[in-house]
Amino acid sequence: MFAVVKIAGQQFKVEAGQKLYVPHLQGNTGDKVTFSDVLLVDNAGSVSIGGDVTVKVNAEILGERQGDKVIAFKMKRRKGFRKKIGHRKLYTQLKIESIA
């Protein structure tokens, strides 16, 4: 059984017991979260899409992690202008407990 869930504006295909990184969510390690915005559910070949879906996905927050550093470098030749800015996006690790 798998489901397609909308989490923080992105769609993820999830299964029970799966661990995945999603864009940063509010909460602490060990908190339980429920996602009710389920777009598709496949239960042993029977597919439910859109408004027919009445399933919720339960997950646990395992922790947070920073992504790879992204560098934005600006330069104007012959002017002496150089600007280097970097950032690392935060991600939250989830463990999908059940699709019910």
Question: Care to describe what's here?
Answer:
There is one protein chain. The protein is mostly beta strands and 100 residues long. The protein has one domain (2-64, 93-99). The protein contains no helices and 8 strands. The strands form 2 sheets. Strands 2-1-5-6 form a 4-stranded antiparallel sheet, with no helix packed on it. Strands 3-8-7-4 form a 4-stranded antiparallel sheet, with no helix packed on it. Strand 7 (57-76) and strand 8 form a beta hairpin. It starts with a strand and ends with a strand. The model has no long low-confidence stretch (mean pLDDT 96).
Count of the separate structural domains? 1
Give the biggest beta sheet: 4 strands, antiparallel
Low-confidence stretches: none
How many helices? The count is 0
Terminal CA distance:
10 Å
Q: What structural class do you assign from the helix and strand content?
A: mainly beta
Mean pLDDT: 96
Gyration radius, to the nearest Å?
19 Å
Can you tell me the overall shape? elongated
How many β strands by DSSP? 8
Strand content: over 45%
SSE pattern: EEEEEEEE
Strand order of the largest sheet: 2-1-5-6
**Fraction in helix:** under 10%
